[in-house]
Design a protein that fits this description.
It comes from Nycticryphes semicollaris. This protein is an all-alpha fold. The longest helix has about 100 residues. It has 2 domains: about 90 residues; about 70 residues.
Length: about 200
């Protein structure tokens, strides 16, 4: 938004300068027409004075004035050409500023769309994270119940001492392995005695 405001201010300044230069151009064109009218009047006057020899001195003054007016017209035409060049440059600058403003608006819209998309993705991830936490809690609860049953079954075997404190996974495995070994040895002994 700040970049667009800056571009709009530059655009307003350039357009104001363009209006001023156009006004100066119109004024110069008006002065040029007036100078041309004066030249035409002087030319008519010179033609009239040539027929009268007694006005030789006045003709010289008129010709000098004519030369001066020609020089003024040339200067005015040169200045008018410079104003036209400046007008062209200003119009080009204004076009560039408008294009930059349009590009800035487009970039801002794209950034807003990207931000909205990121927010949507973040909400989706938060929802998935919540689902994963619920699933994890469910699995953890089921695992704890299963572990509790294993501990209960393991230490409820005859000859086993019930645990007095929290039992680690290693202790449960050792107790189970001991039961398995004892039963294997018992079956082996029965087999050796011929008992099925």
């Amino acid at each position: 938004p700040g970049a667009i405001s800056s571009l709009q201010r530059q655009l307003e300044v350039q357009e104001s300068q363009l209006r001023r230069i156009k006004s100066e151009k119109e004024m110069l064109q008006k002065q040029l027409r007036e100078q041309e009218n004066q030249l035409q009047a002087m030319a008519t006057k010179i033609c009239s004075l040539r027929d009268e020899r007694k006005h030789d001195k006045m003709m010289m003054a008129t010709e000098e004035e004519n030369c001066r007016l020609q020089q003024v017209v040339t200067e005015q035409e040169s200045k008018l050409a410079e104003q036209n060049q400046l007008l062209s440059e200003l119009q080009e600058t204004i076009s560039q500023l408008r294009a930059e403003a349009l590009s800035s608006r487009r970039r801002i819209r794209e950034q807003q769309q990207a931000q909205e998309e990121i927010q949507s993705q973040a909400q989706t991830l938060q929802h998935r994270e919540l689902q994963a936490r619920v699933a994890l809690e469910c699995i953890t609860s089921r695992f704890e119940r299963y572990r509790s049953k294993i501990i209960q079954a393991t230490f409820s075997v005859a000859g086993s001492k019930p645990p007095q404190a929290e039992v680690s996974d290693e202790e449960v495995l050792e107790a189970m392995q001991k039961i398995i070994n004892e039963r294997t040895e018992f079956h082996q002994m029965l087999k050796e005695k011929g008992v099925k």
